[in-house]
Here is the input.
Amino acid sequence: TIEFEEDGAVNMRTEAAPEDYLYDEIGFFLDTKDNKVIKLANDNISFYGREITDVKDYSEKEVKYLVNYLYSLIDDEGYFIYNMNISDDSEVSDVYNMLRHAGTTLSLIRNYDLIDDNNKIKKEKIRSLIKYIEDNTIDINTFSFVATDDEINVGCNGLSALCYLEYISKIGNDRVYKLKAAKLLDGILACTSENGILDQLFYLTFAL
Here is the structure.
């Protein structure tokens, strides 16, 4: 029999096989975007995902699609719009996740050369994302912290420092970015005890 699933999958299976017999199912996925049928794997290892023969070509294609999608989510103010009301395309107010922001920014920087679009536009968008990190960074003595709603997130310090350093490596040298990365890394060291444990007190809300 042939079964059509709501997600576009097409399954072909044998009818009423005896319980003491084993049989394999053959599955297909209907890709309406590229207008083709893709065979599903049935090796009991890949959990019946798409059977991909050219992994490199497929992966690069998917990454390009995702990178372009992430660029489309960048607001003019330099933050990602990741919570929308689909009924009227309005933005849903929510606590902004700076750790997510820094991690996604880092991904875009590392994939900067993957998209063949206008480099100037890409550079401006990435600079706006980094500017948002700068605007949410506070200085304490000789080190810095990225903060959300007056709460320090040491993990975000690490990702943000990598954003600065990866930008210098892949897009353009910037002495100011080097200094900002160093201050963020010094902030992590300031939270680290002699045995390598992060002091959890630095995660507490504080008064600016």
Observations:
- Strands lie at 2-4, 9-12, 26-31, 36-40, 84-85, 90-91, 137-140, 143-148, 151-152.
- The chain has a mean pLDDT of 77.
